[in-house]
Amino acid sequence: MDEESGTSRGALEKSRGVRCAPRGAGCLRMCLAVPSGDRGFVLAGLDLALRRLRELVDGESGSVRVATGATTVRHFMSDAVVAFRQQHPDVSLEFRTESSSRACFDALADSSLDLAWITLGAPVRGIEQRPVMELPWVLAVGAEDPLARRPYVEAEDLSGLRLIRLPPNSTSAAHLDAACAELGVRFAFDTSVADWDTALLLAELGLGRAVVPALPGLAVPGGGDLRLVPLPALRPLSVGWAVRRWDALSPSARAFADTVTESCRTAVPHD
């Protein structure tokens, strides 16, 4: 029994939905230090705090902080964001744009971010990586390009092509270089861009060719002024989640990660 409020510990636990820790001889008793007229405000504040804690434990409120690339939400998360907000209307989503997977790892380690969407690469100390999907490579060219009419392009046909270069310090560029090296393929480069969407736009405008991942929602072989020609010989690019520890994720963060994963894996390719 709480002598000050006339409430038993068992009744308090039942009414608040939490388990109270036993009080020891050295435990401070907050109510004794609060004037009796103010104890109602204290208990009301405690009730609000316990309710917020219960919502966080149940994944019903709070926020999910995600590090992404410049085009990640558009290509990988748009449907999942809508579904998640419908299922968890009181949970806010906060997106922080980073320039590379390396920057995402640094952000995870140095901030309160929950998740990061990355191109998977070598293991990183203190970070857990989980693949979600593999993206095949395609050659993006203008509709009038001689290669646009091919059903696919062989690896040997890539040698010597002048391409629009992905950011050289990015994990995706390193993966592409390694995949090409396995096949003895080397490129020359006309220009460099910051992201995949810019490379696609330049190819569509007839200003160059680009080897890019077949992003969700992109039509292959494409239409209009852009054509995407499969490159089946190149090892696919793996993308997915990075976290500090999966077992330490909040229920809201885990629910968002699962929603994005399910959306990506059930997406129907556009033909």
Return the domain count.
Answer: 2
Biggest β-sheet, characterized? 5 strands, mixed
- Radius of gyration based on Cα positions: 26 Å
Query: By helix and strand content, what is the structural category?
Result: alpha/beta
CATH topology of the largest domain: D-Maltodextrin-Binding Protein, domain 2
CATH architecture field of the largest domain: 3-Layer(aba) Sandwich
Instruction: Supply the number of helical segments.
Output: 7
Strand content range? 15-25%
Mean model confidence by pLDDT:
81
Strand order of the largest sheet: 2-1-3-10-4
**What is the number of beta strands?**
10
- Find the CATH superfamily of the largest domain: Periplasmic binding protein-like II
Are there runs of 5+ residues with pLDDT below 50, and where? 25-32
Fraction of residues in H or I helices:
25-40%
Name of the CATH first level of the largest domain: Alpha Beta
Sum up the structure in keywords.
271 residues; alpha/beta; D-Maltodextrin-Binding Protein, domain 2; 2 domains
Describe the structure in your own words.
This protein is of the alpha/beta class. It folds into 2 domains: 99 residues, D-Maltodextrin-Binding Protein, domain 2; 99 residues, 3-Layer(aba) Sandwich (D-Maltodextrin-Binding Protein, domain 2). The chain has 7 helices and 10 strands. The strands form 3 sheets. It has a 5-stranded mixed sheet, sandwiched between helices. Strands 8-5-9 form a 3-stranded antiparallel sheet, covered by helices on one side. It has a two-stranded parallel ribbon with strand order 6-7. Strand 6, helix 5 and strand 7 form a beta-alpha-beta unit. The longest helix has 20 residues. About 3% of the residues have low confidence.
